[in-house]
Amino acid sequence: MAAAERDWPDGIKKTKQRQAVLTALEGSGNPISAAAICAQTEKAGAAVWLSTVYRVLEFFVRKGVVTKVAVLNSDMALYEINRFQHKHYAVCVRCRKIIPMDNCPMEKFVPKLADDGFQVTGHNLELYGYCGDCGAKG
Amino acid sequence: MAAAERDWPDGIKKTKQRQAVLTALEGSGNPISAAAICAQTEKAGAAVWLSTVYRVLEFFVRKGVVTKVAVLNSDMALYEINRFQHKHYAVCVRCRKIIPMDNCPMEKFVPKLADDGFQVTGHNLELYGYCGDCGAKG
DNA sequence: AGATATTTTGAAAAAATTTGTCAATAATGA
DNA sequence: TCATTATTGACAAATTTTTTCAAAATATCT
Prior knowledge:
2 copies of one chain form a homodimer. Helices cover 33% and strands 22% of the residues of chain A. Chain A is built from 5 helices and 6 strands, in the order ααβααβββββα. Chain A binds chain B through residues 68-74, 90, 92-93, 97, 99-103, 105-106, 109, 111-133, 135-136, and chain B through 68-73, 90, 92-93, 99-103, 105-106, 109, 111-133, 135-136. The first copy, chain A, binds a DNA duplex (30 and 30 nucleotides) through residues 13-18, 33-35, 48-52, 54-56, 58, 75-77.
């Protein structure tokens, strides 16, 4: 269990459940839902109740350990570990595969907003289209 | 009622409810929720049931008339008329104000994806931060 | 225009996701 | 180790979205 041995974030009480949630998030390279995390902890033999998963995720998001990702046409919210680097994804509209993007267009971009005073603190970008497999199929 | 007189999309049966939904979407410059559309139709004197609003929206999205927008930390899905032009928004994390963006970083950008075969058909971008009013307040 | 066939809507119920409650449990500090 | 405080399980409730089906509206055909 990687999360058990890794450095634990400061000021966060270490519990079995939180470790299990973090391990599940680590285990998935891509953003996953609370339900998926719950299922994952069950499979790993350290079952965490769904309501607890939500609470833990909310807590982690507030602490900056985890990031909530808005994915188009996903009816559930998705979460991923905050690796403290920009990360965006391309989503296949057919098979829902999620493919990470290695660069970011916002690096050299100044947005034009009607509100001059808007302070941008972050952004969320998502590409969609057809992945290699699905594009080939038609 | 603007939507009543405007060109009606081809192959789409014209009903009072669909017109009311489209009018509500037209009336709002920004993406709005199904519940907001429902309330708007009521206020306009052409009340449409919430379930119908969802059905109509789903239908319009499939037809390409309307776009579903993924907004971070919004518990409801938001919709806007497809004006067939890129449109992105900045969202204030404090007051939830939505401010349209007049340019787009994806115009001159080639994404680096692990999947070489991925065909990008669109994208969704959202900035977040503090709007002029909220930033000033601290 | 009128009758018919097909869609679409209202109305309500159900499903799915997320949040809240509270007693019991577990983790941290003295 | 014991006490204090935070956290979890278990369930209930709230919210958003989807489904169902008879009734109503719309388009089509003559």
